[in-house]
Amino acid sequence: MHGLSILVTVVARADAKRFLGFFKEEKVNCLMATVGRGTASGEMLDYFGLKDSEKMILMGSLSWEDWPVLCRKLRRKMGLEAPGTGVSFVIPLSSVGGARQLQLLSGGQMQPPKEESQMKNTAFELLVAVVNQGYTELAVGAARSAGARGGTVIHARGTGAGPEQQFLGVSLAPEKELVFIVVQTHQKNKIMTAIMENAGLSTRAGSVVFSLPVTGVAGLKLDSEDDDGK
């Protein structure tokens, strides 16, 4: 697409503040945080020197070109080379729903490309809508009206300074909900457009929507498949 990626970092909850401070210093955009829980056994946690399995999942966006330098700093400055400290990885975006949303995710550094490129031979994509808390149904309803079958919602919190942020004159509420919707690639543009028009930045939902390539899916059937899965 245009070199924009989603950064996902999973660390112990006790380390979250330290990592958030690091990412803000490194100007990682649109940071959000949500709570998770590791699945390692007690013996495994003891082996890695972790006291408990409660985790924080930190998400942000950055240019793919910035990842190598950030990765080195995560290892050397933040200690991700040490076993049990955490894990950080990036996922390339295949598209972003609108020019304003692209500017928000990129910190105002990127403009929409003339032509959208995408990973070939991917029958499905994952749509991620970042929605102000309490307005998820606006985004989900818009997606369903355009052919989406449903999605999964998790709670998160924006980590910008102050009770509210402003970006290009748009108020960004700190409490967020993330909506994950797996769709067929040919449906993507229609569904993203519906979310932008009915629950986008100009609405109370304030949705930012982007898509990630999906290289394998179980549990969803293509329109071309018959009841026997052929």
Folded structure, characterized:
Helix content is 24%, strand content 33%. It is of the alpha+beta class and 230 residues long. It is built from six helices and eleven strands. The longest helix is centred in the last third of the chain and has 12 residues, at 188-199. The protein has helices at residues 16-25, 42-48, 67-76, 99-105, 136-145, 188-199, and strands at 4-12, 29-37, 54-63, 86-92, 95-96, 124-132, 152-158, 165-167, 170-172, 175-184, 208-214. Helix 5 (136-145) crosses helix 6 (188-199). The protein has a nine-stranded antiparallel beta sheet with strand order 4-1-3-2-7-10-6-11-5. A hairpin with a 2-residue loop joins strand 8 and strand 9. It has two domains: 4-92, 2-Layer Sandwich (Alpha-Beta Plaits); 95-214, Alpha-Beta Plaits, CATH 3.30.70.120.
Structural class: alpha+beta
Distance between the termini: 32 Å
Write down the CATH class of the largest domain: Alpha Beta
Helix percentage range = 10-25%
Spatial ordering of strands, largest sheet: 4-1-3-2-7-10-6-11-5
The average pLDDT value, as a whole number, equals 77
Label the CATH architecture of the largest domain.
Answer: 2-Layer Sandwich
Shape: globular
Oligomer: single chain
Listing every helix as H and every strand as E from the N terminus to the C terminus, the arrangement reads EHEHEHEEHEHEEEEHE
Estimate what percentage of residues fall within beta strands. Answer: 25-35%
Fill in the CATH topology of the largest domain: Alpha-Beta Plaits
Count of individual beta strands: 11
The Rg value, from CA coordinates, equals: 18 Å
List unreliable stretches of 5+ residues: 47-51, 166-171, 224-230
Number of domains: 2
